[in-house]
Specification:
α2 (17-31) runs antiparallel to α3. 23% of the residues lie in helices and 19% in strands. The chain is α+β, with helices and mostly antiparallel strands. The protein is elongated, with a radius of gyration of 32 Å.
């Protein structure tokens, strides 16, 4: 008997989200194809546990799975047990009697087309997979061979690569390596479908579904398609103005600090952010932060002799 999704992760039904995540991470490290190149069974298990985690980490799909509405592949379950309408199959009945497919009303070897009769009784509803009315006329077409199961992957990519849409080299469960092209409009959680990269089936291979996870950065943060960061400057640079070097995900650039810049002022670098679905790029926003040295005798001496001007807290009513 095939393992259910919880058993694939070594868990019982009712496991918490944290337990599911912990179990997946542990198994993924053990079974990753890069660590088991000579073990095809490990690659198969890696695919199975990744698919299980992908479905159970989706709250809506997990709830539907727990209620028995979908199967381990995420497909809806047949309401009548998968054996045709009312549990009858389209082939011969027990004891050699005719089934729906070969039932003969006389006058020839082929069953008559009663679609008009059923359309009149049931409002003309038809089934795209069968011929005739809602019960498939009386002659069901042969089922189209199903493709193999899809294989689920999760890929964590560096923040800078996500901004630049840099192709990612990945190893699939079958051991093959491909360069994955990242799409415009990339988000954390974006799913990329690779046609024909899943498991083999009667109707051909299924697909590979790659879920993207964008790694956090130590000083860049995302704001829609824009990128934000804090840019430290010295007091002298802020008072007199200066050109300073600032980092961007695609390399450092020179930025002009206007004379008399205060902390909190936002400078904009056009087109240095993420790429939207329409191809337009967001900006990089630099928030100026003036940093003062802790022990600078000259600065302290200057401040002692400077009277200052105005009240910067006037807008606060104090």
């Amino acid at each position: 008997m095939a393992l259910d999704l919880y058993q694939r992760l070594g868990l019982k039904r009712g496991a918490s989200e944290a337990e599911i995540k912990k179990a997946y991470r542990s198994l993924a490290k053990q079974l990753h194809p890069d660590r088991n190149k000579d073990n095809p069974n490990a690659a198969k298990r890696f695919s199975d546990v990744t698919h299980a985690y992908d479905l159970l980490s989706d709250k809506d799909k997990r709830a539907r799975y727990d209620r028995g509405e979908i199967d381990e592949d995420g497909n809806p379950k047949m309401p009548f047990g998968g054996g045709g309408f009312g549990g009858y199959s389209s082939g011969a009945q027990p004891g050699g009697g005719p089934g729906f497919e070969n039932f003969n009303f006389g006058g020839g070897s082929e069953a008559p087309d009663l679609s008009d009769l059923f359309e009149g009784l049931f409002g003309g509803a038809t089934n795209t997979r069968t011929r005739g009315g809602p019960f498939g006329g009386f002659r069901q077409r042969a089922r189209v061979p199903e493709k193999g199961p899809d294989v689920a992957y999760r890929l964590k990519i560096p923040f800078e690569d996500a901004v630049a849409l840099k192709p990612q080299r990945i190893t699939l469960a079958d051991g093959k390596t491909i360069d994955l092209k990242l799409p415009k409009g990339l988000e954390d959680g974006t799913r990329i479908r690779l046609a024909g990269k899943g498991q083999e089936g009667p109707g051909g291979k299924g697909d590979a579904i790659v879920t993207i996870e964008i790694a956090p950065h130590r000083f860049f943060t995302r704001d829609g398609t824009n990128i934000r960061m804090s840019l430290p400057v010295t007091l002298k640079e802020a008072v007199l103005g200066a050109k300073v070097k600032a980092p961007t995900p695609e390399g450092p650039v020179m930025v002009s600090i206007p004379k008399g810049t205060s902390s909190g002022k936002v400078l904009r670098l056009k087109g240095r952010g993420f790429t939207a679905k329409d191809g337009a790029r967001g900006d990089q926003l630099l928030t100026v932060a003036i940093e003062l040295p802790a022990d600078d005798a000259e600065l302290q001496k200057f401040a002692d002799g400077w009277n200052g001007s105005g009240n910067p807290r006037a807008a606060l009513g104090v």
